[in-house]
Amino acid sequence: MKKTRTETLGIYVYARPRSQHEKSHNDEMYRKARLIASTRLPAIINKQYGFLDTARGNRDFLEYFRQIVGEHNSSLWKGCYNHFRFFVKNSCICAEVDIELCRKFRSYLLSAHQFRDPTRPLAHSSIVNYYLKFLSLLHNAYRDHMIEEDLAIQMEYIARKPTRREFLTPSELRTLSQTPCEIHVLKRASLFSCETGLRLSDVLALKWEDIVPNLEGNGYNMRIRTVKTDEEGLLPLSDTALQLCGPRSTGTVFKGFTRSMTDRPLKRWLEDAGITKRITFHCFRHTYAVLQLASGTNIYTLSKMMLHKSIRSTEIYLDLLEETKLETVGRISIYIDPEMFDE
C-alpha cells in the first residue's frame, strides 16, 4: 500500500478569483505554500532515511524551554530552566539535546548548589522536582518535533528521600510566642505563618490590599495567589492572625521583613525559647497543619486552606499526627506580645 501524508497549512485561496485583488491574494498564498513545501520536503526525506534535519536541529532549545516556562509560570519550572541554562552556559540548540547531554544534566542536578546561596547544596526535594520538570520538557519537545526521539523514557528517575517534617507542639508554640525576639517583624511574620499556614514566599508577598472584609461583614479574608504553585484562594483570617498584621496601612503587610531574617535571627529566637528541634520558617506551615488536624479540622477543609493541589499532599500530616500520638487539643494558642508592634 502506498503511504501518503497530508499537512494542513491553514492557507486559503479564492476558488474563482474575479478581481485583481483576489488574483494577487492567490498568487501570494501559492508562493507561501511553495516556500513551506521547500522546507518541509527535505525534513520528511531526512526523517524517512534517518538523516539529520539541519533546520530543526539548529533551533534554539533554550528559547523553546523559556516558552514552556512561560506557559506554566511556576517557580519549579523557572528553577529548572535557570539551572539548565547555567549547565549549558547560555547556549543550546536542539541538535545538541541527546541522551548524553540529558544524563550529564541529571548528574549536574545531583551535585548542584543554590544560586541564592552558593555555599548550600540544592535540597533533594528541589533536585527531584527540577528533574521531573526536565523530563516533562523532553516529552513536550518530542511532541512538538523539536527533538527526534522521546529521551525522557530512556532516563533514570531520581528517587525521593523520606524527609521528616518538624513542627511545634502547642506548648512549644505558646513558649515561642512568649519569648522576646530581637526583630519584632520576624516574630509577627512567624506567628502569622503558624496561624495561617502561609509559606515564606507568600508572607513576604502579602499586601494590605489582599486583606478584604468577608461577605458576612464580621471578619476578614486573604486573597492569595501562591508564589510556588500559582494557586488562587480566598482564605479566612482569624482575629489573632489579623492582630499580628498590625495597624492597617498600605503596601506590604510585614514591612521590613526579609528572607535573611529567617536564618540566624530565627535560630537565635528559637534557642532563646529553649527549642532544640531543627525548625525553619517552613516548619511553621507544618505546625499550622498538624495542630489544625489535632484540633479536629476536617482534612478536606485543611487541604483547601493550605491551597494544596492534591489531597495526598495534606494526608502527609495525618502520618505526623499518628507518629507523635497527639491527642485532640484546643485551637492554636498564641500569646500576643504588645512589644512586637514597636518598630
How is this structure best summarized?
The protein has 343 residues and is mainly alpha-helical. The protein has helices at residues 20-49, 54-57, 61-72, 75-87, 99-110, 124-143, 170-178, 184-196, 200-205, 239-245, 264-272, 283-294, 299-305, 311-324, and strands spanning 211-213, 220-225, 232-237.
Keywords:
343 residues; mainly alpha; three-stranded antiparallel beta sheet; 49% helix
Low-confidence stretches: 327-331
Span of the ends, CA to CA: 82 Å
Number of strands: 3
Q: Can you give the mean pLDDT?
A: 85
Which strand-content bin applies to the residues?
under 5%
Largest β-sheet summary: 3 strands, antiparallel
Helix-residue proportion: 40-55%
- List the total number of helices: 14
Looking at the structure, what is the overall shape? elongated
| Secondary-structure class | mainly alpha
Order of helices and strands: HHHHHHHHHEEEHHHHH
